[in-house]
Write a structure and sequence with these properties.
Two copies of one chain form a homodimer. Helices cover 58% and strands 9% of the residues of chain A. Chain A has 248 residues and is mainly alpha-helical. Chains A, B: It is found in: Cytoplasm.
């Protein structure tokens, strides 16, 4: 509530609804939005038939184009730096994996962006791709609102750190869960995956997982399936214990 | 010579060859490069078989991937802002026209970038695409050397201002030369295209054009064919006289 209070003090024109939206967006971005209108547009579906004062449609489709371009260039620069061994073909292939429709849908779903959608069509009628599309339009909105560097920050936080693992993309690591289990067995450590339901406010089913080793929680994760949540927690555990695990 | 002098004062390790390269690159970029190594790499062909200390090849191919990504995102943002009437499909189509292989080759050729190529293969053996490829790798080098904002500056100066004209890309304007001639005839003005050869230092044929109206030079241009140079000078004239010409 303290953040909400701060906004109201800063700008009296924000209504309660905007204040809540501001908080949610800030939590997702990891930094404060400046102009909420960009983010509202990022979640406006064409079915609303909104027009601006010049008669141009207001919806997320143009922002999707912009966000896609920013995502591609940030990922390109990341791969260029992190994979000095990879040639042009390798970099192109790795980037396609990261920005695949399927992956973007997963990213949008994990952030539960669909809760922000303004539409005349019931949300259940949308296909899977809506999740990835609004993930891209959100990036477009960040670019307009805060510029390229903040786009980079967001993509670092929400795409690169949690998901971009070059070994995995290269197919060297198939499952972090099996990596963790194997290591625990070798090292005679007791591991436990504690799974619980942790649903979204709109009723979407989510699963939380706590992975503990020798009674100590090493990593937590949340995803739309038990399997995904376990894998995510295992990957985080792997990164936490990498030095120890790589020795074996 | 004063710039050269400045470099030598700043850094005594620059030899004469580097000093000349620095000057040429600075003239192309419109700002000073910081680390010449990036630019040297941008013009190193794989036929040199150079390797760095980790055994990875040194050539422009990875930079080409990076530059392509930066170019796409800068052009995306430009079109997004300049064409508020265009939907996602329109923006995608316009961008493809701008970053087409043919267009990039023309851009690289106009800057005569091939003079910087280091290669074991004779330059004449390269196909047309070498021009566009090293134009892209140059953008990649700028990104590494000076960051995204400078990439944007360069693309603004070398791609957007001279070449990106939305009316033309939409096919509304077929030829600026005919536009200029038509206007001059209507307005009873005397126009003259003064064409002369203006070759590159490496012997590439270039043509210069001065377009004057009523005895006053309005625009100059230089290109690899007479027709292109005339068109470019006409486009510049159109932009210079746009207000007057659009009234008619």
């Amino acid at each position: 509530m303290s953040i909400l209070k701060k906004i109201f003090t800063k700008s009296r024109s924000l209504n309660l609804e905007d204040g809540i939206f501001f908080d949610s967006i800030q939590a997702i971005l990891g930094f404060a939005p400046k102009n909420l209108d960009h983010y509202k547009k990022a979640f406006t579906h064409r079915s609303t038939s909104k027009l601006n004062s010049e008669g141009h449609p207001i919806n997320y489709e143009r922002l999707e184009f912009l966000g896609d371009a920013m995502l591609s260039s940030v990922i390109a620069a990341h791969l260029f730096n992190k994979a000095p061994h990879g040639d042009e073909g390798y970099l192109t292939k790795m980037r396609s994996k990261i920005v695949s429709r399927e992956h973007l849908n997963e990213l949008g779903k994990d952030l539960n962006l669909i809760r922000f959608i303004e539409s005349k069509v019931p949300v259940q009628h949308f296909g899977e791709n809506i999740h990835g599309n609004i993930f891209e339009s959100l990036i477009g909105a960040i670019y307009l609102d805060r510029g390229y560097i903040y786009c980079e920050k967001f993509i670092q936080k929400r795409v690169i750190i949690p998901y971009v693992d070059i070994s995995r993309l290269e197919g060297k690591v198939i499952s972090y869960k099996s990596l963790v289990i194997e290591w625990c067995q070798k090292e005679k450590k007791v591991f436990h995956y504690d799974i619980f339901e942790d649903n979204g406010i709109d009723g979407t089913r989510f699963f939380g997982v706590k992975l503990s080793i020798d009674g100590k929680v090493i990593a937590k994760a949340r995803a739309t399936s038990k399997k995904k949540a376990e894998e995510k927690a295992s990957q985080r555990t792997y990164f936490a214990l990498q030095e120890k695990m790589d020795k074996k």
